[in-house]
TrEMBL record:
PANTHER family: EUKARYOTIC TRANSLATION INITIATION FACTOR 2-ALPHA KINASE EIF2-ALPHA KINASE -RELATED. GO terms for molecular function: ATP binding; protein kinase activity. Gene3D superfamilies: Transferase(Phosphotransferase) domain 1. Belongs to the protein kinase superfamily. Ser/Thr protein kinase family. GCN2 subfamily. One of its GO terms (cellular component) is cytoplasm. Transmembrane segments: none annotated. This is Kinase-like protein. Pfam families: Pkinase.
């Protein structure tokens, strides 16, 4: 298969992002390549494999994993669609844009509240919690939003509490339950999504208010 590889950037110290252009099929993919040390840090390999596993459940607002492969200490995830950016960048840029010049981009936020709520509800119905919901893990593409980065997500049972009390996730969006190491299931994602919604509402209310 003829692919044109375009370097996009790095995520952390072990992950490289590239855009793959399938010239025959005329489709674009994103490749996330993890290069692990011979002696990876605890849970590092587990988190890579978890990201491969979770998003295979299809939903219009969740990134799709098309293929995965491994070469020695390299693990690759082929995903689509290829995003334009993430919600964090979108909000930061919009916060600096006068309301008279935003071309309807603030109004677009009102639709995304529903899109993101449906996506989280879907993941929870499938027995999956994301555990790191934040604007940087929500991709934007042609007026749409998609959850990505499932490296620390986990599956849970509807009738049981999570056994994990490890403090993970991004502090700004982390729930009180996770901070205090209390066991919980859905409420962590719901709290984090609420924090994201608060940022969205702040930007929606007018420019220059995010900080």
């Amino acid at each position: 298969m003829a692919f044109c590889h375009v370097f996009v950037g790095r995520v952390g110290s072990c992950c490289v992002l590239r855009r793959l252009d399938d010239r025959i099929a005329g489709r674009l993919y994103a490749r996330k390549m993890f290069v692990l040390l011979r002696r990876p840090k605890p849970n590092e390999l587990e988190r890579v494999l978890q990201e491969v596993k979770i998003p295979n459940n299809l939903h219009q607002h969740v990134i799709r994993v098309m293929e995965t492969y491994q070469r020695k200490n390299m693990y690759a995830i082929i995903m689509e669609p290829v995003a334009e950016g993430n919600l964090g960048i979108y909000l930061s840029d919009l916060d600096e844009t006068p309301a008279s010049e935003d071309s309807g981009r603030r109004e677009q936020l009102t639709r995304w509240f529903w899109c993101l709520t449906k996506a989280i509800a879907y993941l929870h119905a499938e027995g999956i919690r994301h555990r790191d919901v934040k604007p940087q893990n929500i991709l934007t593409l042609e007026g749409d939003v998609l959850f990505t980065d499932f490296g620390i997500s986990e599956e849970f049972q509807e009738t049981t509490m999570s056994e994990s009390t490890e403090i993970i996730g991004t502090r700004t969006y982390r729930s009180p339950e996770r901070e205090s190491r209390h066991r919980s299931v859905r409420r962590e994602d719901i709290f984090s999504l609420g924090a994201v919604f608060l940022e969205m509402l702040t930007v929606y209310s007018g420019p220059g208010r995010l900080n």
